[in-house]
Amino acid sequence: MKIRNLESFYTLVEALEKLPSIGKKSAEKMAYAICVENKALGNKIAQSIQNANQKICKCKWCGGLSEENECQICQEEERNNGELCIVAHPRDISIIENIDFFNGKYFVLESLESVDFDHLISLVTHHKIKEVIFGFSPSLANDALILFIEDRLKPLNLRFSKIAQGVPTGIGLEHIDHLSLSSAFKGRIKV
């Protein structure tokens, strides 16, 4: 039951509930914490959200998150090691970066319908990519996607590999510990 005259509170709760993995009780606790217990924190969060919404965009080259047209990773010349990791989501880049093992370039493929293969091919050519690493969690759908991408990039004479053991089937990269993800990159297998 909603208490009258608390529309702004309930609007905040409903907005927080729309975040991934946040239920009604968690949303209510967060709303109470930032509106009642710690208004300074609430103001800081509100300002941070507003700043991020205004500044964060996708890199024109890889599709990762950036505050400029070109992300820091794409700007780093020392990352031109001939390796390109294709991931499913921009957040996967920071997850892989946190294991501090991969030192190549990235490409975000959020959906097959939205991928610009001409752009991907020019990225591969420009950075002299020799190996494409698929940073997808194992699943039948992702295996089919890998085969489709391989087929489209076949004329470029590339090596293809995917992350190996340590990554459970159907689990997103954000749910995998750093040690398992690092092992999966080190033990990547040819596809």
What features would you describe in this structure?
- The protein is α/β, with parallel strands linked by helices.
- It folds into 2 domains: 7-55, RecR Domain 1 (Helicase, Ruva Protein, domain 3, Orthogonal Bundle); 58-190, Dna Topoisomerase Vi A Subunit, Chain: A, domain 2 (3-Layer(aba) Sandwich).
- It is built from 8 helices and 7 strands.
- A 5-stranded mixed beta sheet has the order 4-3-5-6-7.
- It starts with 6 loop residues before the first helix and ends with a strand.
- Specify the oligomeric state: single chain
Low-confidence regions: none
Number of domains: 2
In angstroms, what separates the terminal alpha carbons? 55 Å
Main structural class = alpha/beta
Question: Which second-level CATH architecture of the largest domain applies?
Answer: 3-Layer(aba) Sandwich
Order of helices and strands: HHHEEHEHEHEHEHE
Mean pLDDT: 89
Give the neighbour order of strands across the main sheet.
Answer: 4-3-5-6-7
Draw up the topology in text.
Blueprint: H1 7-17, H2 24-37, H3 39-55, E1 57-58, E2 65-66, H4 72-75, E3 83-87, H5 90-98, E4 105-108, H6 117-126, E5 131-134, H7 140-153, E6 159-162, H8 178-186, E7 189-190
Parallel strand pairs: 3-4, 3-5, 5-6
Antiparallel strand pairs: 1-2, 6-7
Helix pairs in contact: 1-2, 2-3
Give descriptors for this structure:
alpha/beta, Dna Topoisomerase Vi A Subunit, Chain: A, domain 2, five-stranded mixed sheet, 191 residues, two-stranded antiparallel ribbon, elongated, Helicase, Ruva Protein, domain 3
